[in-house]
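Posting for a labmate who doesn't have an account.
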Amino acid sequence: MRLIFTRLILLILSVSIFAQVREHVVQDNQTLYSIARMYNTTVSNLMAWNNLSSNRIRPGQRLVVAPRETEQTAFVSPGIYIVQTGDTLELVANKFGLRPDDLARLNALESSRLVPGTKLLLRPASTPVHTVQQGETLQRISQIYGIGLDDLMAINSLNSSQLRAGQILRVRLPESIPLTHEVLEMDSVPSLARLYNISEEDIRALNGLEGDRLIPGQVVRLQDFQTANMPLLQPLGPEQVNRRTPTSDPPPMQQLASVPQLPGLRVHKVESGDTLFSLARRYGVKVDDLMNWNKLENTNIRVGSILRVQAPEDAPGPSLESTSVNPVRPQTETAPAEAPLSPSGHLSRLIDIRPPRDDEQLRWDRFVVLKDDIPLFEWQNDFYYFSHPGQLTQPSNRYYEEEWRSPLRAYRKATRLWSEFTALVNARPKKSDLLQGVTIVLDPGHGGLDPGTIVRSTDGSGEPLYITEDEYVYDIALRMVPLLVEHGARVEMTVLAPNHLIRDTTPATRTLIHEKNEVYNNEAMNATDQVSDWVMGGAAGLNKRLQIANGFFDKHGGTRVFLSLHAENNPRAPMGLGLWLHPDDASSRPLAQAMLPFLGQRAYTRDQRYAVLSNQNKADFKILAEVRNLAYQEHAWALRFANTRQLDAERLVRGLLNFFQERRKRS
């Protein structure tokens, strides 16, 4: 009897646990994207499992967050169907009201035979244009894409229903208004007004146009960047009632396939459509490496097979010359196996300053600010606040956006974000008191009117990419903050951004935009609300950074550390991470020497009379770190990836911890 009772209790507990995993009650300020990341799934899955037609959810709403065990859903997202055993082309077409021929053409099927597990596109939701085939009619195309004839003709500037083979047609009405539009041959001001349901006058005013003619390839602005897409956490106002609302989120970051992960080994289960090249792009490795690690004789792979996608411990790490859009953490030089601190020191325990394991990595979604009065956008798989950029990627080395007209308002938004971010950081459990009493001022180089260097690089296909220094080093600085605070440090920044915190930049082929919106972290320096208040280079700008740093040192006291972060573009400098010291500053040299073993094999130190390192800086220890040298293709490539920037942040923090461990041991 006791055995039966025990089994009954275990059964009840297991059902309860399963229910908790399967459903989630929406809390205040949560979004579909944050919930998807919490449960390691996708927004599209949540929408499909809960029959949602938009991404708007309400507190108290119950959401299915995993497919029920008894009903394995055949959908991975709205409009995509997974072929089940017994499915035929006719059965699937009839189920969704399609013609078999149209379904076959949408999915480029050469036969009517369907393979279980294959993903079928049910509607061309991801296809913005259509190439007319011989014999096709406008009416038939409108039926395939579910768009009215009048709309189809208007958005393509058609005066008749006559079509020609090879003609390109726009076949989708967008569900929300983007910020910009790249002009195609069929576009004109009236057709774009009809396409996006905005007035022709607004399009002309936003772009300084006098007529209706547009040039193919021209980028047309459709909205003011600061009043762009509806934010996720801001109620609709009267002026937004008639605006179309998004019905789906940007695709969240790629996740590893849900296959068993062996200790120390990252693997991938091959799905339909996978190739060695696509897997190499996804995981940031070379095709040759995948073949070597899996002992493949050719590039053919089978659906369902398990592939190693990370190097064995005795193999070299993945190359930075791959074409990944979401790489695994690169293999790098690590700290000495034993921490250089004796147990007889004053520490209650040794501080582990080796690279963290995968299961110890910070989850950056826990640092997303969710406040009712702070508009939140999901833009390019990252979170932005108050507004987001207008472009998808930095289009050239001369491009910039300066939609933030008021430095003072930008400062107030930036300090609000910084306050909320540091509150989340300070709420994390502490690992040690090694940096207790240490004030660290991080100085992300450039910003505002001064982007630093903007370097032209290329992706794996040879397409140009542009890397803006200040946007990326700011991200590294932010990533250092929780790593320092968890050891007791007080961390401040000399400059702040008003519309973003940490960004994962997925895919990395869409590079961060040069926004002229960073501000000095000092209210008095923004008080006149003039152009001269923005962050800028030159002696005046550097002097302001010194004043800010000294102000924090005077305010907090204790041991004072100043670390300025840059990414140089100098082919005459080494390729490794460089620590630059003022030649007259002997006190900072022990810090640099203690950090070097943790910064990679090519790390180096140099002397330079930088203004921020002069004796006017009140820091006890002051260093300028060139975290990357963008003159080298490998570094320009690597800086784009969030994982690499996280690695750079961890290297610098481990070096600082090493110095203070040695220092405490000697005291």
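Reply:
Got it, the structure tokens are right above this. The chain has a mean pLDDT of 76.
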